[in-house]
Design brief:
This protein is α/β, with parallel strands linked by helices and 493 residues long. It contains 15 helices and 19 strands. A hairpin with a 4-residue loop joins β6 and β7. One of its GO terms (molecular function) is oxidoreductase activity.
Length: 493
């Protein structure tokens, strides 16, 4: 095992990437101190607790269980040492706005039969699609996700070429899916996971068809106490390894150099040999570092394609919501316009595609008896104008849309409500343009085209989280922590 005995590390930001990195470094005997600007650990995976309701404020899908098993296994633990898992059935429900409704269940044969009702031969096409998706997942994870190929020359060898042969590396998800399915609804079912990557069918590389293996084959799960319970588990591992956590303590500047860093905070400054930032990459460079210590200038950040922000309503509701599943998607039959209003001509979507989460369907601890815990998430463009008047108007549109297309009228049953939108993402998470996720996974922003784990300008400063490889999503950020720690080990282990 690599040893960092005697090295002190300050980790800025207690999101998934920061918590993960802290565990790996502490396991190597470093003295690790995590500071977090907000009142709790978790970053975007924060909890909101109010009036007997507990909401996961950000991520709410537990996907890729193998990644969590790998993380805990590195420390001779298992996820079930910290939380139990429930396999959801259905995985999710979809309401199409033409009145059609489908459930995607763990039973693949049932799903193949469902696909056949839309298009002759679609069941067999699904089987072939998932075979390709599984191949992409297994090869991609082993050779291109867990291995950080950060330079072009890392791809220019025979072994990489052999592993990459047959992978769907180029082209868009839209083009890839069209090779298997003609029916637009089937295409939408295969592409909805792009929302987790912050992209659209036309700007996300075809490689990400691997997400269908995640969805259909690995399954959709609910962890005990929600994603907040996962955060608790990861933080507990860190505590057991000796990590110190400090909430309500933002970093205001990173000064000094390798071996003699000074992380300024509103309290006394923290000294460290090394620094890892899990704060928003652009915020770290533009706000915490002086110009000569930045790897990228303001023009770089302005030129990036960002994943969407989101309009969120957290609601405590009287009674049950039988029409909805734990995870429910509501999709226009043509969602092109919604994606155009996110990436091409930013505006509040006129006919939104959105997601509803009702964890009280599975977990009776997240809502008072006789009530439901529910939130709605509408992906919207980062950087949109966000005012109380716009939120109120859009709230009315969304609640009406839910009533019209799912048969669930919430408007007279809401006993608790809180909105969260562009300005909140920017304020709470120092998020560039209020993006909910970071940099989108376009072809020009995937793999070696994402910002590196090592600072380009300051020795001893490292980055982790969704801006780095492998990218967006809870499992990816967990892996990002491992990759960042590997860079530290290479330099100092």
């Amino acid at each position: 095992m690599q040893s960092l005995a005697g090295e002190s590390v300050v980790v800025i930001g207690a999101g998934i990437g920061g918590l993960s990195t802290a565990c790996y470094l502490a396991d190597a005997e470093a003295d690790v101190h995590v500071i977090e600007k907000n009142e709790q650990l978790g970053g975007r995976a924060s909890r909101l607790e109010a009036e007997g309701f507990t909401f996961d404020m950000g991520p709410s899908w537990y996907l890729m269980p193998d990644v969590f098993e790998r993380f805990f296994g590195h420390f001779d633990r298992t996820p079930t040492d910290y939380y139990d898992l429930t396999h959801l059935d259905p995985h999710y429900r979809i309401f199409f706005k033409d009145g059609d409704e489908v459930d995607i269940t763990p039973d693949l044969e049932r799903t193949k039969d469902l696909f056949e009702t839309y298009e002759a031969g679609a069941g067999e096409a699904l089987e072939r699609y998932l075979e390709k998706s599984k191949e992409n997942y297994e090869v991609g994870m082993e050779h291109f996700v867990y291995e950080d190929r950060e330079r072009l020359r890392d791809y220019l060898d025979l072994d990489v070429a052999r592993q990459a042969r047959g992978l769907s590396l180029l082209g868009s998800m839209q083009g890839h899916v069209e090779k298997y399915f003609d029916h637009p609804k089937l295409q939408q079912i295969m592409q909805y996971t792009l929302v987790f990557l912050g992209g659209s069918p036309r700007n996300t590389p075809a490689l990400y068809n691997l997400m269908s293996h995640v969805d259909f084959n690995l399954g959709v799960w609910y962890p005990e106490n929600g994603l907040g319970g996962v955060i608790d588990g990861i933080a507990d591992v860190g505590s057991e390894l000796g990590v110190t956590y400090d909430t309500d303590r933002p970093a205001t500047a990173i000064k000094g150099r390798e071996g003699a860093f000074l992380v300024e905070t509103p309290d006394e400054p923290l000294r460290a040999d090394l620094v890892v930032s899990n704060a928003d990459y652009a915020h770290t460079e533009q706000e915490l570092l002086t110009p000569e210590r930045r790897g990228y200038d303001a023009d770089y950040w302005e030129s990036r394609t960002y994943a969407p922000s989101a309009f969120l309503l957290y609601m405590g509701v009287e009674g049950d919501v039988p029409e909805l599943a734990h995870h429910t998607l509501v999709l226009p039959t043509d969602w092109e316009e919604h994606f155009e209003q996110i990436f091409d001509d930013p505006a509040w979507p006129d006919d939104p595609a959105y997601y509803l989460c009702v964890p009280s369907k599975t977990d009776d601890t997240v809502a008072p008896e006789g009530h439901s815990n529910l939130f709605v998430l509408v992906p919207i463009a980062a950087g949109l104008e966000d005012t109380p008047e716009l939120r109120e108007s859009y709230r009315d549109l969304v609640l009406s849309d839910i009533a019209d297309h799912t048969g669930t009228d919430l408007r007279d049953r809401i006993v608790y409500e809180k909105s969260f939108c562009v300005e909140d993402f920017a304020d709470r998470y120092n998020s560039y343009a209020g993006t909910a996720l970071g940099m989108a996974h376009t072809l020009r922003q995937t793999s070696l085209f994402r910002p590196p784990h090592r600072s380009k300008a300051v020795d001893g400063l490292y980055f982790t989280g969704s801006y780095t490889t492998p990218g967006i999503g809870v499992p990816m950020c967990l892996i990002s922590g491992e990759l960042t720690a590997e860079k530290v080990f290479e330099d100092h282990g």
